Give the backbone structure.
Amino acid sequence: MNHSRLSAYFNQPAYFLLFLLFLFLVLIGYHTYKYYIVKNFILEVFTACNPTIDICFIADSNIADPNFQSEPYKKVIINADYAPQCLEEHSCENFSCDGISGNCSVIYCSQESVADGEMCSIRLVTNP
């Protein structure tokens, strides 16, 4: 197809709209496959953290949603296709990346990892 035939083809509104519809459906199909079937994205979630054992994140009470971030938490970064369901539901207890074959890391609070609106807890040492 030479250039003049191609531009004549797309000058007809019906063909051009069909082409755009086809392109739109291909893009929706690709993203549906990537995010819902293969789960090819990074998931960053908060999960419970024990401040007597670890240095945890604490949300600034002036900024945080009290129903969601009222307890100390640690951050987990994991490929979504390897994430257990409890991470997506924010209900994991004592979560660890041990035994997970995908890219997984647990981030505890430190000077490098704290973001705006967060603070680090102080580890409470208890003597036996």
